[in-house]
Amino acid sequence: xxxxxxxxxxxxxxxxxxxxxxxxxxxxxxxxxxxxxxxxxxxxxxxxxxxxxxxxxxxxxxxxxxxxxxxxxxxxxxxxxxxxxxxxxxxxxxxxxxxxxxxxxxxxxxxxxxxxxxxxxxxxxxxxxxxxxxxxxxxxxxxxxxxxxxxxxxxxxxxxxxxxxxxxxxxxxxxxxxxxxxxxxxxxxxxxxxxxxxxxxxxxxxxxxxxxxxxxxxxxxxxxxxxxxxxxxxxxxxxxxxxxxxxxxxxxxxxxxxxxxxxxxxxxxxxxxxxxxxxxxxxxxxxxxxxxxxxxxxxxxxxxxxxxxxxxxxxxxxxxxxxxxxxxxxxxxxxxxxxxxxxxxxx
Length: 347
Ligand code: AVJ
Prior knowledge:
Helix content: 25-40%
Number of strands: 14
Distance between the termini: 12 Å
Low-confidence stretches: 1-26
Shape: globular
Bound molecules: N,N,N-trimethyl-histidine
Mean pLDDT: 90
Order of helices and strands: HEHHEHEHEEHEHHEEEEEEHEE
């Protein structure tokens, strides 16, 4: 029996082999209707929410890149250094010269992937790099960073929905990357589902490299999401701009306060947009209008901190047997390598 395609609109997400992604948005008509439904549901949940993937329009992706260069935002640079130091070990565990295919979900500008690609070449391989991202801007930046020599396939898609990837060459080893600590944007159930579905794109024995932010001192975490230049605040407000563009809604981003506390007993940063006075907002194609009381916030992101065992349990529950654990010397960032127990086919 033919493999059931996970979503009806996925074929359109796959870009041709263009050097640079050409379209500015992934929103096809079906996807737009789905996005409007998703936004409506999220805004009527308690607390009110907007899913964090809506941060990443082209401007949001550029703002996130700016965040990664802030002195206060340590996760990216910590992960980057860890991958740089342990790249050879990671590549060896993932198949060495037989590693032919590196797939990154939510690649962003992918600057940290360069070290892995270099290590794979040093091990005698020449892997193709398949970068999946929701922002064409980010994929274009990736192409710039990689240069023309690396075999590169940009896939402009929302990986949280069904995803079509270029076929894996027969007998090859694939390594799936999910880095940056983005797994912390989901609760356990969602995270397990996402990592489990990633097995749709691999064969038994292929590997996953998962990056996770680890529990560390709350004051440092707090500062990383409350930078004095206000780049994170701007990134947070930009989400409303993106929603306005997508839905024709009338949020006034400047009218909202950025609030991002580290909640110790939940082990997570929560990003909120808070109206300092009552507001009624026309929701455009989302439908109706939204009445917010003074101080009634919209939660735009959770970003979790993990303990090592949380991460290992998570990948194991998603069908990836833990193979290796790497941790930054300061204990702030961890990388888990897991091996797929089975291919998720026909499920
Ligand atoms: C890209 C999801 C890993 O959670 O730290 C940065 C996004 N939010 N500053 C994170 C983010 C606020 C980032 N991730």
